[in-house]
């Protein structure tokens, strides 16, 4: 079997070995913030915005604009699905409730649409040019949520029952397939050469997404996963589609491949930063904010970055953690574990340096991402907005 | 919700109402063959080849050539999947057994690859030009098999356990997704304008495929389905992808949209003919040839063409059948029904005219398909080969 390149864009390496990074570097301010415990009411790790113009940008306005431009086109696309798939998809997106009544659901953070719209502007085009890219990426992202929730047996998403819980596994498979197809159709029906180039990048990102889910499932059955394997998986699951979002808007706006590749590089590392923060929130996040249970990822035995970094660090806490997790894997009592038993594991992860390393990793990936942007020629305002979004991704609480 | 056109190509109407068609027309020779019962060792309905040059074409050579050109490229594409998806896909295609040992499996009839290769030749291009089209269509077709088998709970395909039975539901979902993505990638990575046009047709056909599966699932829960609804569903599930196969090879070969649409029209009606024969085989097929149980579709309560035509025909047998099927839907003993109970239902379908009508429908769709071909300018040899394939589709026993 010949392995093939799995990502949409080349990238540089941001990750240091866990032990290197917990030991050294400019983690001062970040490290201090990083020791807060969200479940105790404090904030999650933050990255201080630099001296850039990003401070002048209101991120919520940016996200809102992306949402406002994208949602009507997204809804019109979903309305094209044959019944009952249109209804099931509308439930998934939070536009209606399980009984079919209109709802004002939580449609997610909408980082991808904002990136796609800015991507078009980075190429000097109007924001509207990026809308088909935003819609396509949202459709593919939600295809993967529908299928992953079913494969992972996740019963809740965005504070609501998942589609397979409400409408059954067949509808989750079928509507996922339909959203996947629709995402590609939205691009291809533009009928231009640029649309073909964008579609090619989208399909490569989708393949990476699927590879990442395959790795995620495989890792569940393994006792040990290396930090490198975890980063590769997270690059596939999260980095590839953010890379696509922030590059195919530009492609639709006429950008050449080199520019698109560099923007993709920004998005890929931003995705890794995003995922590192997600992994921190998955253990120490505030359930009120995340909509998930306390110690959510530990309950699901996820081999997320803090866990694999802690296991790789060595030392007494790391070894004790390894023993506990190995015993947990065989335990029949796991499902009835108390809060305290998860808290013990979380404390060991922290003691072994897994939390601090992951916090540092979010910062490192953020830095690499922002540095990639510097090599692309674009309006200052657009650059500042992209940096502001990158900052937002690593300071969010949900 | 705004409905959208669900098919890849315009088409003419071949179907008469069941009662009209069983009464009239040139069904003589066909009707006679159609009364044979495959399970009693006789042949399934046949369509006599016309006076065309099709008689001089060896269909098995045509199918073999399509398979030989396509299989190495298909295997190379599947090899690009990350483990364990490559292995699961190889099992599905019959290249390895459940233990991972090389197998010489039944890869299906390979009608689609043969059509895609001929499609390129219809546009005056070399057969090889159609190979990416053939591979793309095979990948998308097999994506739908993987997902449909899981949704329908089908445990056997091509005389072997289905993927979800052997590798679990998650792998069936995931590898299905991967084949879907790969099919689009194979076309888009050609990077030409023609490839973009072909990809757009492929994604439209895939959307139709998904619509058809949605209809198929919805019909299972309904007491009555009209003949028109059944034909629309079968057009989506079978017609759209055959239409795609026989048109996108030509698109890659430089054909204009009008030519591609007409070839798609041929493929769409050929698909409906194919499905009518499949529906006959699903009730009266020889289990040895089909690899399915006796009365397979009746055991699965499928509302296939012979059933809906029989129910629509009226008269004593039709009414008795309706009563029996309505009672079956509520029966808790259905799973332990004897051969004889299914034989009674099959006899009623036949007595009500459902078998004869479906046989006639296969012939009518075949005629419309072949007539569409006459309006496309292409080498005589290629036309004869397409007609020979069309004839094969309606005389097959599996």
UniProtKB/TrEMBL annotation, chains A, B:
Organism, as annotated: Streptomyces sulfonofaciens
InterPro entries: Isoprenoid_synthase_dom_sf, Polyprenyl_synt, Polyprenyl_synt_CS
Record-level Gene Ontology MF annotations: metal ion binding; prenyltransferase activity
Ranges in a coiled coil: none
Entry superkingdom: Bacteria
Keyword Zinc-finger belongs to the record: no
Protein name: Dimethylallyltransferase
GO biological process, alphabetically ordered: isoprenoid biosynthetic process
Keyword set, alphabetical order: Magnesium, Metal-binding, Transferase
Entry similarity comment: Belongs to the FPP/GGPP synthase family.
Residue numbers spanned by region Disordered: 1-54
